[in-house]
Amino acid sequence: MAVLLWLFSIYMIINRYGEFKNWNFSMILFVVALFSISWSLASMICIHLSSLVTEVRNGNYTNYMLKPTSSLFFYCASQFPIRTIGDFLSSLILLVWSITIIPIDFSVMDILFLTISVIGGIATISGSFIINGSMAFLNIDTSMSFVNIFSKLRDMSRFPLFIYPEYLQGFLLSIVPYGLVAYYPISSIIFEKKRTILLYFTPCIGFGYLALSIILWKYMEKKYEATGS
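Structure tokens predicted for ABC transporter permease:
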């Protein structure tokens, strides 16, 4: 509901004042939809990591460490938040809507690039969940910090990044690369006539971000082991 209200406000602004530097409502809707698809799929896998601190504090996390598989993998696989199905379906509806109204003829390479971008987006957003969850090993309740930080970054990434100062653009493209989830691929498809082969490898940055988050997780997990909890 909040997303729909937000989109309605964007529609009214554009309808009254015109496009944002050649970005119309259908393009912004496409960014929102593509980002939401990646977010909902990543949430199916990792969103419950934000409540890991409860397992750490009561000592139940030790049970996950005794499993033959990775404790991170087992913890993520042990739960499935049902509500994420609704998030995914609503995101899918937004995606279909945006595709039907956006004035673009997608090529096979465009579709392939967007598909890879969604996969890279899942990796990026999952990495953020893992970073957030890893703080639980320091006995820090990160449930609110996740809402206040990563969710705000998510909301910022729904807009074309050019409306932000350069330092924020850089942050959303390199430090927490949410800008590569939807804005950058869509911007490239719409406005870049000549694309280099390197463009199609930008989703790999999401996997690099995920790998770094897993390294951080393992480092923080050792602190939990050291306490003998």
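The chain has one domain: 2-226.
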